[in-house]
Amino acid sequence: MRRTSFSQWPCSIARTMDFLGDWWTPLVLREVFFGSTRFDDIQRALSIGRNVLAARLRRLTAEGVLRRDRYQDHPPRYEYRLTEKGRDFYPVLLAVTRWGDRWLHGSKGPPILLRHTGCGQITRGEVVCERCRKPLPHAEVMAELPNGRKPDLDVRIAATYGAPRAGAPRKRPRTRNLAR
Amino acid sequence: MRRTSFSQWPCSIARTMDFLGDWWTPLVLREVFFGSTRFDDIQRALSIGRNVLAARLRRLTAEGVLRRDRYQDHPPRYEYRLTEKGRDFYPVLLAVTRWGDRWLHGSKGPPILLRHTGCGQITRGEVVCERCRKPLPHAEVMAELPNGRKPDLDVRIAATYGAPRAGAPRKRPRTRNLAR
DNA sequence: GCAGTCAGTTCACTTAACGAACTTAGTATC
DNA sequence: GATACTAAGTTCGTTAAGTGAACTGACTGC
Prior knowledge:
homodimer; alpha+beta; two-stranded antiparallel ribbon; DNA-binding; two-stranded antiparallel sheet; 6 strands
């Protein structure tokens, strides 16, 4: 339904979800990465409503993720190409694919395999630390604010919303069981 | 509105988007990764509707991404913990964060920094080939079906839907400009 | 006894996804 | 030259789902 906008939240996950807009957007991008560049190709491949697709393509174009190129003049016809911003979204799809491949297909393996032409092998995307190139599990990552302080819950909420909201508790009472 | 279900599509991206359900789910997971484990904590941090949050938590629990643990008996109170399936979703959030950090914050830098305790440095998640550990741009990835054949458009559509759908063209007429 | 916490549920409102039909300009076939 | 088809959308009625606000029920702290 989309009334809550995340586009101004200081959180890249929130903004990215706001940018996606709905579940169709990543699938539209998948299609374009796969080679479908035209309206009807994408519409048929996904069985997406034509009005929804038109809206999504308009939005993706306005956001600078796709470019609308005229490939014919009479009548005017357009195709959609990825911009750099769009191509840079590919790793997100790889990360999503890895998770889905692992958890969402039961005993049957993944439906599609990926071959890395660089090394010639069947592979998957893996998320690593860009500094030391080792995997980056949640347990080894600490969040920090740009000023170097750690965002505890209160600080984080303030940072997320600019100021405490009405109704938010001034302090956090209540014992918390930090054990686990 | 969510009537189209992707849960049975043979595509990990589609299934993952179906699993997410809406834009809130990744934010709920972000909160849990961040340390909020209780209903009101998450609700306040995100300003999400209480009924929507209740539905999301129910779904995530049913999907096996969160576990609902009772931490107090009188009255019964619960908190939500990540399962392995849930923790394994973290790389997706890292990939999303990287993209959002780069493209969605204008001149202002990213709002949150991540430190890898393994190597001690400020870092970001990067998606690499799990075999050769090099970055995996779209231009270096070819899709293959498990039988070794390349999924061209026709094959892909057949693979995606099991059989050609009514209204789908038997063959692909029309010249395509494969240049570029 | 009063305020507050926690984990939700209920309800009226509104909006966006859905599906199907329609449009416009041009090409191909018979 | 009528019919069928293509491509890229737009229009429109229906309906499910997100939204916000109020409410509940068991308990705690002052």
